[in-house]
Amino acid sequence: MSPERVSSGSPPSTVRLLIVDPLTGEPVADGAEGEVWIQGPSVAKGYWRNAEATEATFGARVRGDEGGGSWLRTGDLARFVENQLYVTGRIKDVVIVGGRQIYPQDVEEFVQSLDKRLKLGAGIAFGLEAADGEVLGLAQETVLMPQTEQRALVGRIRAEVFEAFRVRLHTVLLLKAGGIPKTFNGKLRRSACREAVERGELPILYESSVGEIGGIS
After folding, report:
1. Are 27 and 80 in contact (CB under 8 A)?
2. For the segment 129-180, what is each residue's pLDDT rounded down to a tens digit?
């Protein structure tokens, strides 16, 4: 299940933009998802006194076109449809569960549509390492309610997510208001949230997990 994507428009004539398979370096077919690579005069030359990071980010080469120069790897996932760019997410945020790609934004928006007690824009789906591979977790701000209601709500979230995405939630955390890490301008801090979960630092109202990972049990 994916929400409707909004076009970011067409790239300007001064910029070359490709959608590339991030693993092989090969351009993907029109409409297929891949990483956004950019070339053009507005692209920086690299990082200050960091040759290794510069090569990794600014030194990408398109397979089969080694003479075509270096490309900037943006880390953004997107599709090109009829010369329109549709951004779908960030590579580092994608969760791989049983070989399947799970986009956290899709899970977050879906969960927050289930119940008015789940605060909009205040939930993060994330990946956690388990013994048998990556598993899916969810941290979500909610209003105060009795524990029996919390338990019932988490049960519904688990059931609905499995029905919609065919993936099981390993860990579900209901948080106090303001518990989700965000930037100063309100952007979700996914990596910081995952690290806080592993350290057991989030203001948890209710937690449910099928195993033990970091500070979760």
Report:
1. no
2. 888 889 999 999 999 999 999 999 999 999 999 999 999 999 999 999 999 9
- List of residues 6+ apart from 151 with CB closer than 8 A: 206, 208
The two most distant CA atoms of the chain are separated, in Å, by 64
42-54 pLDDT, tens digit per residue, is: 999 999 999 999 9
Token pair of 206 as six digits: 């209710």
CA distances from 2 to 81, 109, 165 (A): 16, 9, 10
Across residues 55-76, what is the average pLDDT?
A: 91
Helix runs in the chain, H state only? 51-58, 104-112, 147-165, 190-199
pTM above 0.85?
no
**Which of the 8 DSSP states describes residue 43?**
S
Amino acid letter for position 96: I
Residue pair 91/75 in contact by the 8 Å Cβ criterion? yes
User: Residue 62 has what pLDDT?
Assistant: 94
| Strand order from edge to edge, sheet including 84-90 | 16-20, 33-39, 72-81, 84-90
Q: Count Cβ atoms below 10 Å from residue 11 Cβ, excluding itself.
A: 17
Q: Cα–Cα distance between 197 and 92 in angstroms, integer?
A: 17
